[in-house]
Design a protein that fits this description.
Chain lengths: 241, 710
């Protein structure tokens, strides 16, 4: 693992610091084995990371000896742990997310969000808890709002649907409009299709399916084009609401 | 030949142009444009009747040329095939492109359907790229206006760097303006273009690299095509251009470039290039095309709601096909009677030149050979004309594309293309124009398969045979059914054969079905008749040339050698004819064939008549008449029917129809098949393959039939 040139610690190093800090609070003596267990990594990776932390003056480490944090290491670990706490409580108390999900998300977000965002989030949590004391429970109002949303539409699938909503043109129903995303593959047919104006960004409307069920009639650029479903399946489109 | 002519034009111009203004200047104009853009109407408008239809060398793409004199200029107008692009995707596109590159027309006029401007301008972007002296004709501008489109012609013309003329081809509007601009553009010659289609930073960087490389490594090619155009085509993986590149370094760089572009864009370079061209068009149109009315549905869309309806579509299609045949035979039959009358009158008149009772070889040749033979074919001219008229109306109105759309599922199942349906339909009239109509098929395998099975579509010339046989052997209430059955057997065999051929000889990927459904248009009388006439002319040419020759040969084969005078003594007229026939070449061949056709239930008389049917199917009827010594007869002849009834069983009658339906198509079809496929191999395969098929099927039917019926 290369030592970062700037002072900023990499996400994994922050994880190590946090782990040492947490283990020290619990049992005073911290060994590489404990760290490896907690983070679910191999002992050799722990050894590597400890060497880096030592080089940067954040931890005291000798092979086969227990590990302690230096003063600056302690400060950095406290900061990470603080971020983690703030994020976790934001996820749980404001957003109303389950504990496990909140814990995992906080572990990831603590490394990427800068101090400004964290401070603001902290203020926001205070703001929400203050407002509930003043008789206006924003958190529970928000919870209701969320539940409503989740019931009315299958929101969780739609959220990921930003990507999933892309289908082959053959799957688009008559009367439905879609925007062309891309054409897959290299063939003479695809070139012809592109020559006919089927290029990304173009809006198409499926007009109808032939009486016997195969070629489809698509309207684009003010004219009608017919293609077999087989050819249409090479054209990826995003459905328009 | 064409290019050498052009060269002389040019040198003439150089020599005399400046000194001698009286000398007519010659200009060559190529008409390019999308299918359905009204290109043909513009061509007809410019050239009137002075047209010449030929072929582009080496390929079976029709080349129409016409002449137009204007203000002392002699303008040769060449109608390029209608294309959407100038890639190497189809023969048509290649032909159009090569004509522009090799023949250097003085002006290229791109006919643009103004009501569908974006897609139509796509071809124009490529002509701009080729840097030809270009004129844009915004055709059907009246329809565009009705749809609420307003063009800032001046600005658009500036952006595209080509003069634009509004035209309405079918009303003859804009002819003078167009010709004026053509003459002007010719005098200007090539212009340096400043507004080029830009493909964006990444592609332009690759193009620059390739351009520089080809300018050094492929000097000849880049001189011929221009290095930028060459670079674009190479990046598009254009097969026709790529095969001419010899430098491996160029190919490697192109491959690396296209791989690089694919990683950046996630799409193939040719798709991105098409994308950018449309971007260029959108940019130009955004500034200069205004749509005042937002038309959600055009009247054409409304018609399609009914005609292509999921439920009604198929019944309407079947009804229309039924009407086509109804028109052909109901309206056609009385007309056929008149034609027949005319030929009888002609035969009588010619026979009248000789004294009554006198026998003369010349008289026999003229009356029995030529008038009888050619007349026998031309009798169908009214039916054929009506069938072609109906098909021309369906084509020009835009319905044929819908028919292909409806039928594609079935055609695709048997390995053909929706468009194969049209030639097969024409096949019910005559195989010759039907085989020529397969030119609409882009894929050679599909095309060859269609050509091979077309003769199984029972053509109009077989009808007289059915008309003779069915009433002779079957009860009245069964007439319709038997006729229907024969047609259906033909169709079923065509399906089976097509499927078989696609699985063996013409194995391979099926042709894609990417087809425009053009807006419905009311066909113009002039356009429809020109369309009909072009096809009918082919049929008549066949009658005038091949059938004439074959009639003479067959006449000779049935008349010579003559038996000796003494053996004929004491015979009456009918016996005399029979004796003569037995002695002739045809009679002898029939006798030789007899052992081979016995198992089919046929005797030497039928064999002789079948030989005649090779020339033209309907000759079978006339030959049977001669064999039975009845003299001149037609399919209405009761006397012949009585003879047939006496001689053969209904099973033999049915086998005759079956054999004539399936067996070798007429010689004219063979000739046209050779011409369209470019090899005798396919033509002979069709000829012998079908005959073998006919033999096997008739054998099975006759033998099984004999077992059951006894």
């Amino acid at each position: 693992m290369a030592v970062p040139k700037n002072d900023k610690l990499s996400a994994s190093l922050e994880d190590y610091l946090e782990a040492i800090y947490n283990l020290a609070v619990e049992s005073n003596v911290v060994r590489s084995k404990n760290i490896a267990e907690l983070l679910g990594v191999s002992k050799s990776s722990v050894t590597g990371a400890m060497r880096v932390l030592k080089k940067r003056g954040l931890a005291n480490y000798k092979p086969y000896d227990c590990i302690t944090l230096t003063e600056s290491g302690q400060a950095a670990a406290v900061e990470v742990a603080r971020k983690h706490r703030i994020l976790k409580s934001f996820f749980i108390s404001v957003l109303g997310v389950e504990k496990d999900i909140a814990q995992q998300a906080a572990c990831k977000a603590e490394h990427t969000l800068g101090p400004e965002i964290i401070t603001r989030l902290l203020f926001f949590i205070e703001f929400v808890s203050q407002s509930s004391e003043n008789g206006c429970d924003l958190a529970s109002e928000f919870q209701k709002f969320c539940n409503n949303k989740l019931q009315n539409s299958d929101f969780s699938s739609k959220e990921t649907g930003e990507v999933d909503n892309i289908v082959g043109l053959n799957e688009v129903k008559p009367g439905q409009k879609a925007r062309i995303v891309k054409i897959i593959g290299r063939s003479g047919v695809n070139k012809r299709i592109a020559d006919m104006g089927v290029v990304s960004g173009t809006t198409v409307e499926v007009q109808r399916v032939a009486p016997l069920g195969d070629p489809i009639d698509v309207k684009l650029r003010g004219y009608h084009l017919s293609l077999r479903k087989e050819e249409a399946s090479k054209i990826m489109v995003q459905l328009e609401q | 030949m064409y290019s050498s002519l052009r060269l002389t034009f040019c040198s003439e111009n150089k020599n005399y142009g400046k000194n001698n203004r009286i000398m007519e200047k010659k200009i060559t104009v190529a008409l390019a444009g999308n299918p359905n853009s009204g290109k043909t109407t513009i061509f007809n408008m410019l050239t009137g009747a002075r047209q010449h239809v030929g072929n582009y060398p080496g390929v079976t793409v029709e080349k129409k040329e016409g002449l137009c004199k204007y203000k002392g200029y002699e303008i040769t107008v060449v109608d390029l095939p209608g294309t959407y692009s100038l890639s190497a995707y189809s023969i048509e596109e290649l032909v159009a492109r090569n004509f522009i590159i090799d023949e250097h027309p003085d002006v290229v006029v791109d006919i643009i359907d103004a009501s569908n401007i974006e897609r139509n301008l796509y071809l124009a972007t490529q002509l701009i790229e080729m840097n030809v002296p270009l004129v844009l004709a915004f055709n059907m501008s009246d329809i565009a206006e009705r749809r609420g489109l307003r063009f800032d012609i001046e600005q658009l013309s500036m952006l595209l760097e080509a003069p634009i003329v509004s035209t309405v081809g079918n009303k003859g509007k804009g002819k003078v303006e167009l010709l004026d601009v053509v003459v002007e553009t010719d005098q200007e010659g090539k212009i340096e273009r400043t507004h080029k289609v830009s493909y964006g930073e990444e592609i332009e960087a690759e193009l620059a690299r390739i351009e520089e490389l080809v300018a050094g490594k492929e000097r000849l090619l880049s001189e011929k095509y221009g290095s930028r155009w060459l670079a674009v085509k190479l990046l598009e993986q254009d097969s026709d251009v790529t095969v001419n590149v010899h430098s491996q370094e160029v190919l490697d760089v192109v491959a690396a470039s296209s791989k690089h572009l694919k990683t950046i864009f996630g799409e193939e370079p040719e798709i991105i290039i098409a994308d950018r061209r449309y971007g260029f068009i959108s940019g130009a149109c955004e500034e200069s095309v205004k749509s005042s009315v937002e038309l959600r549905h055009t009247s054409s869309d409304v018609v399609d709601k009914v005609i292509l309806n999921r439920v009604l579509g198929l019944p309407i299609f079947l009804l229309l096909m039924y009407l086509v045949f109804k028109l052909t035979f109901w309206v056609g039959d009385p007309l056929m009677g008149w034609t027949e009358g005319f030929f009888n009158w002609a035969a009588d008149t010619v026979a009248g030149f000789w004294p009554v009772g006198a026998e003369s070889a010349l008289k026999s040749l003229l009356v029995d050979g030529i008038i009888g033979g050619v007349g026998g074919v031309l009798v169908f001219l009214p039916n054929i004309l009506l069938l072609f008229l109906a098909i021309a109306i369906l084509e020009d109105s835009g319905y044929m594309a819908r028919a292909a759309f409806i039928m594609d599922r079935i055609m695709h199942k048997i390995g053909l293309h929706g468009k194969s349906f049209i030639p097969m339909l024409i096949g019910f009239g005559c195989s010759i124009p039907a085989i020529m109509a397969t030119r609409v098929l882009e894929n050679r395998r599909s095309r060859l398969t269609t050509i091979m099975v077309i003769p199984l579509m029972s053509c109009g010339a077989r009808l007289p045979i059915y008309a003779l046989i069915i009433p002779a052997f079957f009860a009245r209430q069964w007439h319709g059914f038997i006729l229907w059955l024969i047609y259906m057997i033909g169709i079923a065999l065509a399906i089976i054969c097509a499927k078989l051929l696609r699985a063996t000889l013409f194995k391979g990927e099926t042709t894609p079905f990417v087809m425009e459904l053009p807006p419905y248009r009311i066909p113009t009388v002039k356009g429809t008749f020109i369309h009909m006439w072009e096809r009918a002319w082919l049929y008549m040419k066949k009658a005038g040339t091949i059938i004439l020759a074959i009639s003479i040969v067959l006449w000779a084969a049935t008349s010579y050698p003559k038996p000796g005078e003494e053996s004929l003594a004491g015979l009456d007229k009918e016996q005399l004819q029979e004796a003569e026939l037995t002695h002739s070449v045809a009679g002898r061949v029939g006798k030789v064939l007899e052992p081979a056709i016995r198992p089919l239930g046929f005797d030497w008389r039928i064999g002789t008549a079948l030989i005649g049917a090779l020339g033209a199917k309907e000759v079978f009827v006339a030959q049977m008449g001669i064999v039975y010594s009845l003299g001149e007869i037609d399919e209405g002849s009761e006397a012949l029917r009585a003879k047939l009834q006496a001689e053969y069983s209904p099973l033999v009658g049915f086998c005759i129809m079956l054999f004539t339906l399936i067996s070798a198509p007429c010689i004219a079809t063979l000739a046209i098949c050779r011409r369209e496929t470019g090899s005798w191999g396919w033509a002979l395969l069709q000829f012998f393959g079908l005959t073998l098929l006919a033999y096997v099927i008739t054998l099975i039917v006759f033998q099984l039939g004999s077992l059951f019926i006894g």
